[in-house]
Amino acid sequence: MSEPTSSLRIAVPEQTRRVGFRLQPGDRLVVRILIAVLLSMLCAGALVAISGHDPIAAFIALVTGAVGSPHQIGAALNRTTPYLLAGGGVAMCFRAGIINIGAEGQIAVGGMGTAAIALVWSNDLSALATAAALLGGAAAGAVWAGVATAIHLGRRVHEVLATLLLNFVALLLVQQVLAGPLGQFGAGFLQSPLLPRATWLPRIPPFNAHVGFLIAIIAAAALSFTLWRTRFGFALRVAGNSRRAASYAGFSLPLLTWSVMLLAGALAGIAGGIEVLGLHRRLIEGFSLGFGFKAVTVALLGALEPLAIVPAALFVGLLEAGSLSMQRQIGVPSALVVVIEGLTMLFVLAATVRRL
Amino acid sequence: MTDFIAAAIRIATPLMLAALGGILSECAGVFAVGLEGMMLAGAFAAIIGAWASGNDLIGILLSMLGGATIGLAVAIVAVRYGADHMVTGLTANILALGLTSYLLRVAGGGRPIAIHLVPLEAWPIPGLADLPVLGPLLFAQPPLTYLALLGCVVLAIFLTRTQAGLTLRATGENPEAVFTSGAEPLRVRTLAVVACGAIAGLGGAVLSLQQVGTFTDGMTGGRGYLVLAALIVGRWNPWGAAAACLVFGAAEAFEFRLQSFGVPVGSYIVQMAPYLIALAVLAGLGRSSKLPAAIGRPFHTE
Questions:
Q1: Is a pLDDT exceeding 50 seen at residue B255?
Q2: What domain range includes position B193?
Q3: Which of A159, A235, A330, B74 has the most CB within a 10 Å radius?
Q4: B149 CB near a chain A CB, below 8 Å?
């Protein structure tokens, strides 16, 4: 039970906390992940057949629903955006051996921060107003991640529990704020008033996708650079392989944990802000539901590689965008997509773990 | 007051059952993050089984099967393949959420099928139920609540007084030693996780069959995660975990009371109570909580 790393080989006692993820090294990783995706699609096909529908027809409806027209592609890109941003942050955490499941709460609080800024401070300079609102979202998301980090590091509560429990608190916090200061009175739903037009994200013409997708792509590239070309990224990778080695090399583990958690929180917060400014144009109740797990899904499906997360997030985004028209046309419940996501993850987990 | 505690015990019943399963899994060295999904699958199987057969007992048995299925998925991926327990459990939860939502709609021909059954009624135990304080608390409860209380006794005896219980705990502390002594750690862990699923499935049956008589998407609402906290607070001891669950049950019962009295505190703030209590207690325990030594660490024979 040694802890092998490529360049550092240090005797590590058995009690060393077994950290995060050890992905199978080498290029077969891609093949393994593709096989996992294929297997889950086959299982999904069987489930469709059980429900008395034609799996091939359902699949065709799914694909055409996702990429059938420029507008549909745009809708799929919009769905992809938050998963890509939050998934990138989660991947960085996992790289460092920190299992951050809190993207959902960070997205919720980030959306709240964005909406609050947009409502109280808006001006005619659209770009400035939008940027300020998004920065507010990033700050709010980072604060929420910071709360989890403080509980984790300060009181030794496992980060999975700290982030998970805070997700529920965040959801309720947004509801409380919508029932109070940020809410639109008498709307019937828990929602904020429509945000000022100046803060809305511009749309990209033929697809009608908002520019959030471009922000997400740029963020993915920046994360890839950070992970592979900076001292911080190197420290993350060392810490993920062996905490002992990271300490020995002189990296401060608490500082690393704080930095990567705040980074992930800020990214998730921006994701929440983009949902609010680009898609809903107001803060609505439960807009972040399920996003936390999807961030984990795309992070692992992309093998914790920021650039590979782009196709992974597109896969999930396209599936979801297509599932609605599959439900409309064929009558297969769109909840099938959640099954596909769960199965894919199980297969990916089983297929990519490094066997000792 | 007696009413309030009796309500807290009823509300805590699903948590207690899930905690019993979670103790089995975590003492064997596998984090029980999948409890949420096991409960959800159990709740679904229970309501479908009871509705289709017209017999609550069939529903209860099926709930164990539903939970055990999710447990098996976790066991295969986390135990056999040695994937990360936390993420595997989380994935199992999503799989359960997706499968139950999907099948609920398939059963209803596209829309969620509407099933409304009469919730399981209280079975007052003749004689004992008339005892002054203990009667209404312990002997006038619905059937699955008795099962949860009985389960605590059985599990406590199993873990401390039987050979199998000892092997299970040893597997969580030092699987290599268990292997050397001739037992199969992988088999022990697999069985423990599947049993955990079956028992947590019963907890789900309490939610659907005993508390409301229907199933809604994601009706477990994070209870599985609260149980994870209860396990740590209760130090993997059936009575300790049950007591912790009771605190969460009391928080929820208190919430209903507050709402019915029209207290001006924001209702969403009040709903945060169980999660905040869980966080506060975990933070309060800090480093004093001691996990089974080999928890989360995969076992490989070489």
A1: yes
A2: 2-112+140-288
A3: B74
A4: no
Residue ranges of domains in chain A, CATH in brackets: 28-352 (1.10.3470)
Domain count along chain B: 1
Query: What number is the average pLDDT over the span A170-193?
Result: 88
pLDDT at A354: 53
Contact list in B for residue A180 (CB cut-off 8 A) is 266
Picking from A153, A168, A182 by the largest number of B CB atoms within 10 A of its own CB, the best residue to mutate is: A168
Q: Among A344, A226, A290, which residue's Cα sits nearest to residue A79?
A: A290
How many angstroms separate the CA atoms of A289 and A202, rounded?
25
Say if CB A119 and CB A192 are below 8 A apart: yes
Say how far apart CA B16 and CA B143 lie, in whole Å.
14
More confident residue, B264 or B115: B115
Q: How would residue B259 be classed by pLDDT, with cut points 50, 70 and 90?
A: confident
Q: Which residues of B touch A349 (CB under 8 A)?
A: 77, 81, 83-84, 87-88, 91
Q: Evaluate whether residue B119 is within a structural domain.
A: no
**Within an 8 Å CB–CB cutoff, is residue B70 touching chain A?**
no
Range in A222-236, A258-272, B65-79, B99-113 the model is least confident about: B99-113
- Per the CB < 8 A criterion, the answer to whether A61 and A324 are in contact is no
- Find the helix or strand (DSSP H, E) in which A245 lies: helix A243-248
Structure tokens at B155: 């599990």
Q: Is residue B50 part of a domain?
A: yes
Work out the pLDDT band at A25, boundaries 50, 70, 90: low
Question: Residue B78: what are its φ and ψ, rounded to 5°?
Answer: -85, -40
Residue B87 lies in a domain: yes
What tens digit of pLDDT does each residue of A119-144 get? 987 677 788 889 999 999 999 999 99
Q: Are B278 and B45 in contact (CB under 8 A)?
A: no
Residue B132 lies in a domain: no
CB pairs under 8 A between A and B: 148
pTM of the complete model beyond 0.80: yes
Rounded to the nearest 10°, the torsion over CA B9, B13, B14, B19 is: 100
Residue A203 sits at φ, ψ, to 5 deg, of -105, 150
Mean pLDDT of A256-272: 97
Phi, psi of A192 (to 5 degrees): -90, 165
Q: Residue A47 and residue B92: Cβ atoms within 8 Å?
A: no
Is residue B181 a contact partner of residue B242, using CB atoms and an 8 Å limit? no
For residue B98, give the nearest of A160, A169, A341 by CB distance: A341
| d(C-alpha A332, C-alpha B103), whole Å | 10
Which CATH number do you get for residue B72?
Answer: 1.10.3470
- Provide the greatest CA pair distance for chain A: 65
**In terms of pLDDT, which residue wins out, A168 or B109?**
A168
Rounded alpha-carbon distances, angstroms, from residue A276 to A111, A271, B43: 6, 9, 34
Block residue for tokens 């290599």:
B176
